Amino acid sequence: EITEQFTSGLPKAELHLHIEGTLEPELKLKLAKRNNVDIGQTTIEEVQKTYQYDDLASFLNVYYPAMNVLQTEQDFYDLAFAYLSKAAQNNVRHVEIFFDPQAHTSRGISFKTVIDGLYQATVDARALNVDAALIMCFLRDFSKESARKTLEEALIYKDKIVGVGLDSDEHNNPPLKFARQFEDAAAAGLHRTVHCDIDQKDSIEHIRQALEIMEVERLDHGTNIVEDPDLVNLVAKKQIGLTSCPLSNGFVSPEMKGKEVLELLDQGVKVSIHSDDPAYFGGYISDNYFAIAKKFNLSREQVVQLARNSFETSWISPEQKNIYL
Ligand code: HPA
Ligand code: ZN
């Protein structure tokens, strides 16, 4: 029987975590006050009442407007350092943090403000024994031209970024829309991953594009791949990581895709467990491990394998990987 103590103590790599999704109601209110931003709520209860969503689009409609409270470099630092302290408590040894620069540059915050604040927090987190890297995501519902400009800016800070990702509204925004930016990012030595959220329209086609044309190294969520045995064989063979987020999935699917995760694990796919937007989906990484372990009665070996997969498919150097594996 898996306990919370076990999932909490297990050394983990967090590979699917949106920093903007770690904005807890308390910090949201504090930053709103500090920056004189009216978010329409003044108590934690009122903020929590706005957290109503049952699909990706309705979640994003709550998620993006709240980012208005993030204004200064200090705000981004505080957000990231608060998360990294939580990561340390969860025995996260390595984390690759997503951030959405266009969600900020589109409202007049400079790329520099965002990355300087986030990056300094990752430097200071070394004192907490957490090794942290940043993954810049393109917003797939923004234009290609906006993505092109964003990559151009990002490349100035190339040494502070480990890779690129693709998130936000998947509907009618296939990965291939950003093929050029992913090619340019690869040429600049950046790693690549793409969100293929659960149960989206054209899920399998999006997964196919990401794997076969854009040659991503991981898929975020991606568990709908079980519908296509050929693609499952491909990700198993190429050791592509699939970053599943049970509590996030639970908002959309009653079974949190647990059966799919177990089936993939059984077939040797490098699937792993993460938290997506913990401040919005009710739990950090240890809670996500515990939720799936409990609901699907996972064995200790299965839980340990999920954690091993997170280190194996992380973008840390092979020497560093040996320390964890
Ligand atoms: N999918 C797409 N965009 C997102 C997500 C997600 O799960 N979380 C934060 N932005
Ligand atoms: Zn995500």
TrEMBL record:
Annotated positions binding Zn(2+): H16, H18, H195, D276
Cofactor note: Binds 1 zinc ion per subunit.
A Pfam family annotated for this UniProt entry: A_deaminase
Keywords tagged on the record: Hydrolase, Metal-binding, Nucleotide metabolism, Zinc
Residue sites binding substrate per the record: D277
GO MF annotations in UniProt: adenine deaminase activity; zinc ion binding
EC number from the UniProt entry: 3.5.4.2
NAD recorded as keyword: no
Group of enzyme by EC: hydrolase
Catalysed reactions listed for this entry: adenine + H2O + H(+) = hypoxanthine + NH4(+)
Coiled coil: none
One GO CC term on file: cytosol
Site (Important for catalytic activity) location in chain: H221
GO biological process: adenine catabolic process; hypoxanthine salvage; nucleotide metabolic process
InterPro entries registered for this protein in UniProt: A_deaminase_dom (IPR001365), ADE (IPR028892), Ado/ade_deaminase (IPR006330), Metal_Hydrolase (IPR032466)
Cofactor: Zn(2+)
Domain Adenosine deaminase positions: 11-325
Function: Catalyzes the hydrolytic deamination of adenine to hypoxanthine. Plays an important role in the purine salvage pathway and in nitrogen catabolism.
PANTHER family the record matches: ADENINE DEAMINASE, ADENOSINE DEAMINASE DOMAIN-CONTAINING PROTEIN
HAMAP family: Adenine_deaminase
Family from the record: Belongs to the metallo-dependent hydrolases superfamily. Adenosine and AMP deaminases family. Adenine deaminase type 2 subfamily.
Protein name: Adenine deaminase
Organism encoding this protein: Pediococcus stilesii
